[in-house]
Every structure is written in C-alpha cells, then in structure tokens.
Amino acid sequence: MRARILSVAAAAAALVLVRPGPVVAASDPGTTVTFAVRSGALTLSVPASANLGAGAPGTVISAPIGPVTVTDDRALLSASWTVTAAETDFTSSASTVPATSATYAAGTVTTTGTITATTTDVTLSNSGQVVVTGSAGVGDNTATWNPTVAVAVPAGAVGGAYTGTLTQSVA
C-alpha cells in the first residue's frame, strides 16, 4: 500500500512539472478585446498680452512675455511641428518703431511625452520666422517655453505708448 501511495504521488508530481498553467480545452470560448486610441489636434496657446515695460530712446527694453505651449494630441507614430513668430510694426499716436527692432528668444523648452524641441533666436519681422521646432515625436506631446521679446528703441523714438501684435503659429 505504501508503494502505491508513493507511486501516485510521484505521478502527480510529474504531471505538475509537465503541465504548468491552466488547462484550456479546445472548446473553451475566447474573447477578442479591442480598443481605440483617440487622436486630437495640434494647438498653440499664447499669452493674450504682454507689457515689456519702459525705456529711453537708444536703450533696449525686454521681458519674458509669458508661457507659450504647443499641445500635440494627434497621437502620431512620427510627429513633428514648427512654431513661427511674426511681429507688426510698433505704433504710437505719433510714431512707429519697426518690427525689425525686436528680437524673440524662446529660452528653455520643457517637454512632456516624446518630442525633441529646438529653438532659434530671431530678429522679428512682419513675416513669420521659425522660433521652435519639434521633431522625433511619438504619440501625444507638449512643449512649453517663456520667450523673451526685446525691443531696441531707436535713438530718435518719440515718447509715448507703442503697441504691436506678435503672432505665433504652429503647423
């Protein structure tokens, strides 16, 4: 009797070693599981306004204008985007300072997700110039920076408040 118990125990141990995991019969039903990854848009958020402060003719007035954020929710396998900036001439009630008197420096870019952000400091003009590019992106990503705009006030500038429009675009 004792030999028989040992024989049954050895056979059970061999069965456990040979058949790990659950036993699935050919007639057991399976479930196909599916899901979808939603994709969205490529968007840009910018400050509504910025005040650089004041300075005398012949000086440079500069300040960070507030955070700029690219949000890429397109969920692409190979994502890239480009941000451009253009400036109108700055006008007051009595005078104009050309857009080319201003510069744009993106500074440090903070990203989330997978994207490589590269900045280019530019002298602004009335036409768009590349200031930040995103490349080698995968899936959704964001990039945020706080650019500094500087205006070299011409020596012959007339006193007053000057206003221009900085247009930033992403594509």
3D architecture notes:
The chain has 171 residues and is mainly β. It has one domain (38-170). The protein has one helix and eleven strands. The protein has one helix spanning 2-18, and strands at 42-45, 60-64, 68-87, 90-91, 96-97, 102-105, 110-119, 122-123, 129-145, 148-152, 166-170. The strands form three sheets. Strands 1, 3, 7, 9 and 11 form a five-stranded antiparallel sheet that branches. The longest helix is centred in the N-terminal third of the chain and has 17 residues, at 2-18. The mean pLDDT is 91.
The class by helix and strand makeup works out as mainly beta
Order of helices and strands: HEEEEEEEEEEE
Q: What is the global morphology?
A: rod-shaped
* Number of E-state strands: 11
Number of domains: 1
Low-confidence stretches: none
Keywords: Signal
Signal peptide: 1-25
